[in-house]
Amino acid sequence: MINMRFNGFIFALVLAIIAAYFFPEGSTILPLETITAIGVGLIFFFYGLKLSPSEFRSGISNYKLHLLVQLATFLIFPVLVLLFYPFANAGGIYMYWKAFFFLAVVPSTVSSSVILVALAKGNVPAAIFNASLSGIIGVAVTPFWLSFFIGETVSPGFGEILWKLICQIISPLAAGFLLQRFFEKWVNKYRKPMQIFDKTVIVLIVYASFSASFSAKVFSSLTFGYLLLLVLAVLALFLIVYFGIGLLSKKMGFSRNDQITAKYCGSQKSLVHGSVMAKIIFGNSPAIGIFLLPLMVYHFVQILLISWFAEKVGGQR
């Protein structure tokens, strides 16, 4: 039986897209720009509060596992998508290829990685370390990768994007991390409400993004055939990375627990980080909806399949 615990969030995302299609003017009536800007800062402030130094230290020693996970997240994914650059450039689907490239360079998930590794009885301290490290590395690596292609979509250069990320992500994250020891009990007590807050902000970002895209009719070229191709491409990308990491981790002599952690952490992509970075990098660009679409489909695929894999593996142990 497939675990569907995250369907509430997926359902809210689908509703946000439907609402954006029928009521795109809502993003202009409500001060969503201000609300989501404040929300983004709070998301990463809370993220910093949840970065436990003791848990970070306990997972740091297994450097081979960490190297594989981070290389998968920030190198293997982008290289796989880059292989199709010549075909996309010639086939009139360049914008959708760039959306896939955006998906490929965002960090791994945080909470779901740890939860699913625990469900499958993998190496939880290493999962916590890698999930946390991925979010920190992504602040610099994601815009660096995008800087090679992003100038054709939005005007800010790498330096301006990095400055925005420092102001809206790194600063609140650092503040939260410095205050972590004073708020540790509070964080543990209100961890679930904080997760609900994170997801609510992401739903608002998705609504505002797709409202702008629908108003500008940027999806006019997205036929059912293209959409089906997008879903199949997302599924293929996930399976290639997931089973590829599994083979690599076996070749490297990882224990069963570490193989689970490598596959689950290295094959996931964060909708939270991706949505926030898209908002900062693309701003009010109508194209933002296109850039979020593959990431949202990937989010659904990874949760559905990895939940299923985790339940099967965990039930066998």
Characterization of this structure:
The protein is an all-alpha fold and 317 residues long. The protein has 16 helices and no strands. The longest helix is centred in the last third of the chain and has 28 residues, at 224-251.
Rg (C-alpha, Å)? 19 Å
Number of strands: 0
State the helical fraction. Answer: over 70%
Query: How much strand?
Result: under 5%
Series of secondary-structure elements, N-terminal to C-terminal:
HHHHHHHHHHHHHHHH
> What structural category do the secondary elements indicate?
mainly alpha
Mean pLDDT, all residues? 82
Number of helical regions: 16
* Assembly classification: single chain
Shape: globular
Distance between the termini: 17 Å
Give the low-pLDDT segments. 1-6
Largest sheet: none
List the helices and strands and how they pair.
Layout: H1 7-22, H2 26-29, H3 32-49, H4 53-58, H5 63-82, H6 85-90, H7 94-105, H8 111-119, H9 124-146, H10 158-178, H11 180-189, H12 191-215, H13 224-251, H14 256-266, H15 271-282, H16 288-315
Short description:
This protein is 79% helix and 0% strand.
Which key features would you list for this structure?
mainly alpha; 16 helices; 317 residues; disordered N terminus; single chain
